[in-house]
Amino acid sequence: MATQDPSPRPGPVSYRGRSSLPMASSNTDDREVPQFEPFQLMPRGPPPLKEFLDIWDVNNLNDINKKQHHTDLYANENLIVRRAQEFQIRITFDRAYNPLQDQFLLEFVIGRYPQVSKGTYIPIRIEEERPQSWRGRILETKDNMVTVGITATPDCIVGRFRVYVAVITPYGIRRTQRDPSSDVYILFNPWSEADSVYLDDEAELGECILNETGVLYHGEVKDISVRPWSYGQFEYGVLDACLFVMDKASMPLINRGDAVKVARMASAMMNSRDDDGVLVGNWSGDYTYGVAPTAWTGSVEILLNYANSGMPVCYAQCWVYAAVFNTFLRCLGIPARVVTNFYSAHDNNGNLKTDLIVDEDGQVDKERTKDSIWNYHCWNECYMARPDLPQGFGGWQVVDATPQETSDGLYRCGPASVYAIKHGQVCYPFDAPFVFAEVNSDVVFYKRNKNGTLEQVKVDKTHVGRLVLTKEIGSDKSRDITSQYKFPEGTEEERTVLEKAEEFGCSRVQSTLPPADVELRITVQDVMVGNDFQLGLEFKNLSELKRTASVYISGNIVYYTGVTSSEFKFKTQKVKLEPFEYKKVTLDVSSKEYLSKLVEQANLNFIITGRISETGQIISAMQVVALHTPKLSVKVSGSSKVSGESFVTVEFTNPFKYNLENVSLRVEGPGLMKAKSKHYSVIPPNSSLTWTEPFSPWRPGPAWLIASLDCAALRQVYGHVEVNIQSSEGGL
Q1: Region Disordered: start and end of each range (predicted)?
Q2: Which of 196, 371, 557, 583 lies 20 to 30 angstroms, CA to CA, from 418?
């Protein structure tokens, strides 16, 4: 005899008993609006409607509207407009429109349960002014055609609206049938002063909204490298993919007109840590079940894969998160740019300290040193007003999609006001203390005594947040925006800011240690992967007495996050200095020592510490050596015209003495060609490969083709070429 399950499974959770209708949280979830909606009970049979207007055609005037609304680059057949700016719709009736006896309205509907109070159902009666509602007016009447102008409110929902034209009769409303091709996308409008994302700088808008390509900065502060990236925010399917991200997050439709809430939601949804977001992070070096972060060339493939499968895409690291997030923001109309912070502290408790522990002889205690400093870290800035903050804290806001720490229970960061970070006002949301620490932490050296106590021996207040870069407007060059995050080191303004931050809970090192009378500096030339090189150690005795330094030289293979993979070189040396003497010691580093131990991004980190015998003072210096990789050659041939046949050729020569195995190549370009890839099982030493692919551009104007080469033994190999595509008629 079967026994009853003592703990039956609960059924699906519903909204019943909590609200009359479920919260609308999907742009694609719709319910058909009836073609005829009676005002009251009707007798059997259709009502006599022949004497009233009949709608023959609705024309969204895409060409006119898209040009005026800066949306003509979107590869989308539907009308795409921006809120707080008038757009036109032309309606053709069966006869001439008579305003004295004819009444019609336009209805904009989004979601499954549209309501006027929620902004999800917007009925627009022409020439009827209602406060805080969309406006409609007749622009022109000609024969049977009426052209109306529609202006969405500056805070309306951003998304895809279904559009109906309805004629009002004494019997009821007769409206057009649902036609997906007549749907209208409403976006944020940075060109309108009424919109919260308004940016009064046409050149900045050209860069941070309209530019589909860019460069991302990485490497080391004294040796900066760039990687090109295709944002592709106007490519086919990307806009719908961005709306899908909000649907996947179950973001209520009523919140989708708030730029602050949209940016904060997307900060969480770009990573998959807790919400099945877009990208899976991976810093392990093993990318067997996905694409290596260094192999991606653009955002389009990632977003389309996510929208089509509904599953997170593998894999990402900080610059991939930032680049895809940049595409999302620009696509929806929020000005955005990718920012790189060199020597970025990961400080999860806001104490503004990164601790390095040495023993009594000055050697780094690796077992007890747990903190790390990222060689660089990429995040985003988006431009918007902050009505939730006091006056003056709007403008550029930090948002970071890389999952580092949770914020209100989810892995996300921001938006945090850049102005608030610079002025130490870290009490304001969101996550300002975390960002403040990333650019302001001290590097504190502690000496661990034999009894286990820690003693501060050196504080470096200038190492972290050394340089903050973004792309220059209209150029491939970098723009130094460090001054937007912090005042110059040692100034009165900086001291005031730190005091202000401490008032809000950010503690910093208070003690002032006497400077050592021996200075130590590291120098190194640019180094290619696989080359031998020399490290220069420069000592300077600032005292009038002799000094003897016992020096420990530790060379480590590190990830760009500052996490050590292995130590490949260790050496001790005694350096004797006469009064006021300068001495340079060179250290030879052979490729055999590091090559077999390299991890991706090819970073070597040298930590030099030592003790002055006469005074007991600790000296130290750190130097990251970013090993350069060979470049790809990318060339274009063919017609260079819209719809014409062109060819892109990618060339690479293996400069190493060993095989490159399981090599993947990728190439793509917005407006030119979709992402294509090719696999090579092996590239022998000194051998070359040539890969040619045809493409047919579909949009005129300047554009980039971006290529990458990636394998386990060689990461971060890129190349790009700029082409100028002519229209099929011959002009631009």
Answers
A1: 1-32
A2: 371
Alpha carbon distance 44, 674 (integer Å): 57
Catalytic residue among 70, 218, 377, 720: 377
d(CA 681, CA 159): 45
**Catalytic annotation, pick one of 156, 318, 331, 413:** 318
Is the domain of 430 the same as that of 473?
A: yes
Report d(CA 464, CA 356) in Å as an integer.
14
Please state, rounded to an integer, the average pLDDT across all residues of the chain: 89
- Number of domains, the chain: 4
**508 pLDDT higher than 70:** no
pTM over the 0.90 mark: yes
- Quote the domain boundaries for residue 668: 633-725
Tens digits of residue pLDDT in 5-34: 555 555 556 666 766 777 888 888 777 788
Q: Which of 183, 247, 400, 517 does the annotation list as catalytic?
A: 400
The pLDDT, as a whole number, for residue 15 is 63
pLDDT band at 511 (very low <50, low <70, confident <90, very high): low
Is residue 443 scored above 90 in pLDDT?
A: no
Q: Is 355 a catalytic residue?
A: no
Q: Which residues fall within 8 angstroms of residue 379, CB to CB, at 6 or more apart?
A: 318, 322, 338, 339, 341, 398, 399, 400, 401, 402, 413, 414
Are the C-beta atoms of residues 117 and 21 closer than 8 Å to each other? no
**Residues 584, 651 within the same domain:** no
581 and 599 inside one domain = yes
Is residue 609 domain-shared with residue 660, that is, in the same domain?
no
pLDDT band at 397 (very low <50, low <70, confident <90, very high): very high
Residue 78 annotated in ligand binding: no
pLDDT in tens, 550-589: 999 989 888 888 788 888 999 999 999 999 999 999 999 9
Q: Is 408 among the catalytic positions?
A: no
* 494 annotated to bind ligand: yes
**Residue 662 assigned ligand-binding role:** no
**220 φ, ψ to 5°?**
-125, 150
Which residue's entry shows tokens 């620009």? 330
Residue type at position 205: L
CB 622 within 8 A of CB 607: yes
Burial class of 192 by CB neighbour count within 10 A (0 to 12, 13 to 18, 19+): middle
Query: Annotated binding residue at 722?
Result: no
